[in-house]
Amino acid sequence: MKKLLSHIYPVTRKIKSNFSGTLEITTKNGKKHLNTKNANYSYGALQQILKFGLEKIDLKKVNSVLLLGLGGGSVIETLRDDFKYQQHITAVDIDPVIIDIAKTEFQLNKDLNLDMICDDALNFMNNNTQKFDLIIIDLFIDIIVPQIFLELPFWENVIKAKSSSGIILFNASLQKSKSDSLKKIIEFLKSKVYKVDVYNKVNEVNTIIITQSI
Question: Looking at residue 83, what is its pLDDT?
Fold first, then answer.
């Protein structure tokens, strides 16, 4: 019934989160979206932004994915449905409410080749010993990328977690005030002899950075 009504007008349910404030699950034209007050978290504009980045990557060479910042899991849907990627995915999110929403509202609990870990991405990377062929970094609180994820110590750990031929896909900040931090990250990655492609104003909003070994 809710899906049928959503074709007439959007149906929204609000859920409180200690990390993201008020989350909104809105069903519109039969499809659910996860939003915060100011941003789409999943299954909307964000899904198209990350899909743009994934189209630049040869996923046939990717056997493992680390996703930092799960949201509702729309990028997982994109990988599974649009790119037919069936290999293992590890997803990390600090917010237990977000993880529960991903499982129950977006049925990620049915994905048997997916591990969802409730942890701070910084803490996870500090303790991680695994290598991944693709690392997707999508770490927002509302519209803000916390500054700690724009600092080089975090990126040192990202580099350590990347396999020798691995790829990094970074959904970067919207804020002009963060541009100096982004420049430092780009120069740092280039100093590691990586090819760094920067795509500005993807979907007229975000910057996407893709890093691959030369």
Answer: 97
